[in-house]
Specification:
This protein is α/β, with parallel strands linked by helices. The protein has two domains: 277 residues, Aminopeptidase, CATH 3.40.630.10; 130 residues, Aminopeptidase i, Domain 2 (Roll). 25% of the residues lie in helices and 26% in strands. The strands form three sheets. It has a nine-stranded mixed sheet with strand order 1-2-3-13-4-14-18-16-17, sandwiched between helices. The chain has a six-stranded antiparallel sheet with strand order 8-7-10-5-6-9, with helices on both faces. The longest helix is centred in the middle third of the chain and has 16 residues. It is globular. The mean pLDDT is 95.
Length: 431
C-alpha cells in the first residue's frame, strides 16, 4: 500500500469515526471484513490456534486478538493500545436554550480542546441514545450520527469586539454554545433537540431517556501541501493510531504467539473509567484468553513477564513559528518518522529495554523514527501507556505520529508518518 493509499484509508476513518462509539463500530466493520469472530464477555471462550477474535466493551472500547498457528504458551502477549475518543463538546441533559430567539444547545467541553478552533465551523453530532426497552434493566441503545452540519458557534464581529486580535479568553459556559436554528413554529424552545433526535431515529420523543452525544467538526479531511505531503483533518488524535492498529493486527504474520489490540475510551479525560486504560478490563480480556486455552491464573500471570505493550498515541511536532516550545535536542518533524516518546516522570511510559526493542524493529525494517522528550521547564501531556501499565505490569513504550495543532478541531500531520506507523505496528505483530 502506498503513502497516499494509507492517507486515504485514514481519511475514510475520520469521516465515519465521529464518536467513540462510531470509532468502535468502524473498527468492527474492518475486523469482520478480515474474518474476525465476535466474542461475548459473559461467555466462556473456546479458542483455537489461527483464530481471530474481537470483543466490544460498553460500546466505546474494543479488544481484538489473533492466535498464531504455532502458539505454544511460551510466548508472551504482544499488545498495542490506542484510544477511541477525542476532545470536543458534549451535549448536557435538558440542553435546549432560547437566546434572543436563537435556538442554542447547552454543552460542556470534553478534554483539552482548543476552544477558538470550534468557532465558525460546520458542526454535527454523533453518539448514542438510550431509549425505553422491554424492561427497566435493558434499555434499547441506538447509535446516531447526523452526518450533516446542524450547528455552528459564531464569532463576535471585530466591529463589536475591536480587541479580538489581541487574544480573547472564551468562557466555556457562555461562549461555546452552538446555534441550532431560530425559535418558531418549527423549533419549539421546550424540546427542539429531543424532537430532532426522535425524528432522526424514527421514534417518539417520549421514548428517549438519555444520551451520550458529542458535537464534532463536520469538515472533511484533506491531503494538502504543494507535494501532497500533509494530512489535515479532524480527529487525527487518535484515529491515526486506531487505523494503524487495525491494519497492523489484520496484516500481522506472527505464528508463535498472541497479538492483541485494545482500543480504550476516555483517554482525553484521564482513562480512569470502566472503559478506560486505568480499568482492569484489558487484564480481564487477557486472562479470559488464557482461560480459553485451559490455562489457569498462575499460568496467565507468568505470561505477563514475557509480554510487551505498545502505547500508540500522537506526539508533538516542532512548530515552525514556535520552535522554542520544543526540547532543544529532541525536535520531531512532520514526515520524520514515528515518535518514540520518553519522560522520566513516566507521563510517557519509559523503559529503555522496551524502547530498544522498538528501535531495533524500526532499524531492521527501515522504518524512520525519532525520539521525543519534553522541555525540562514544561510538560505536554501524557498518554494511556503509563496508566495501562500500572494495572498491567508489562514492559511498555509510547510511540505515535507527530502532529501540529494537536487538540484543535482540525489537526495536521505528515502523510508519510501514517505509513511509517502502520509499518511499525505490522512488523511488531509479525516478527
Amino acid at each position: 500500500m502506498s503513502t497516499m493509499e494509507h492517507a486515504e484509508k485514514l481519511l475514510q476513518l475520520t469521516e465515519t469515526a465521529t464518536s467513540s462509539f462510531h470509532t468502535v463500530e468502524a473498527a468492527v466493520r474492518q475486523l469482520k471484513d478480515a474474518g474476525f469472530t465476535e466474542l461475548d464477555s459473559r461467555d466462556d471462550w473456546g479458542l483455537s490456534s489461527q483464530g481471530k477474535y474481537y470483543v466490544v466493551h460498553h460500546g466505546s472500547s474494543l479488544a481484538a486478538f489473533t492466535v498464531g498457528s504455532e502458539f505454544t504458551f511460551r510466548e508472551g502477549f504482544r499488545i498495542a493500545a490506542a484510544h477511541t475518543d477525542f476532545p470536543g463538546l458534549r451535549l448536557k441533559p435538558c440542553p435546549e436554550m432560547d437566546d434572543e430567539g436563537y435556538a442554542r444547545v447547552n454543552v460542556e467541553v470534553y478534554g483539552g480542546a482548543i476552544l477558538n478552533t470550534w468557532l465558525d465551523r460546520p458542526l454535527s453530532m454523533a453518539g448514542r441514545v438510550a431509549c425505553r426497552g422491554e424492561d427497566a434493566f435493558h434499555p434499547a441503545v441506538r447509535l446516531i450520527d447526523v452526518k450533516r452540519p446542524v450547528f455552528t458557534i459564531p464569532n463576535l464581529a471585530i466591529h463589536l469586539n475591536k480587541e479580538i486580535n489581541k487574544g480573547i479568553e472564551l468562557n466555556k459556559q457562555t461562549d461555546m454554545l452552538p446555534v441550532a436554528g431560530m425559535i418558531g413554529e418549527k423549533l419549539n424552545k421546550e424540546d427542539f433537540l429531543i424532537r430532532f433526535l426522535a425524528k432522526e431515529l424514527h421514534m417518539q420523543p417520549e421514548d428517549i431517556l438519555d444520551y451520550e452525544i458529542g458535537i464534532y467538526n463536520a469538515d472533511a479531511g484533506d491531503v494538502i501541501g504543494m507535494d501532497g505531503e500533509f494530512i489535515s483533518a479532524p480527529r487525527l488524535d487518535n484515529l491515526t493510531s486506531v487505523q494503524a492498529l487495525l491494519t497492523g493486527l489484520t496484516e500481522g504474520e506472527r505464528r508463535q504467539g498472541i497479538n492483541v489490540i485494545a482500543l480504550f475510551d476516555h483517554e482525553e479525560i484521564g482513562s480512569r473509567t470502566k472503559q478506560g486504560a486505568g480499568s482492569l478490563w484489558l487484564n480481564t480480556v487477557l486472562e479470559k484468553i488464557m482461560a480459553g486455552f485451559g490455562r489457569d491464573r498462575n499460568k496467565y500471570l507468568g505470561t505477563l513477564e514475557e509480554s510487551l505493550l505498545l502505547s500508540v498515541d500522537v506526539g508533538h511536532a516542532v512548530h515552525p513559528g514556535s520552535p522554542a516550545k520544543s526540547d532543544p535536542t529532541n525536535k520531531n518533524k512532520l514526515n520524520g518518522g514515528v515518535c518514540i516518546k520518553e519522560a522520566s516522570a513516566q507521563s510517557y511510559a519509559t523503559d529503555c529495554e522496551a524502547i530498544a526493542i522498538v528501535q531495533q524493529i524500526c532499524e531492521q525494517e527501515n522504518i524512520p523514527y525519532q525520539k521525543f522528550a519534553n522541555r525540562s521547564d514544561g510538560t505536554s501531556g501524557g498518554t494511556l501507556g503509563s496508566i495501562a501499565s500500572s494495572v498491567l505490569p508489562v514492559r511498555t513504550v509510547d510511540v505515535g505520529v507527530p502532529l501540529l495543532a494537536m487538540h484543535s478541531s482540525r489537526e495536521l500531520m505528515g502523510a508519510e508518518d501514517q505509513e511509517s506507523l502502520v509499518r511499525l505496528v505490522r512488523a511488531y505483530f509479525s516478527l
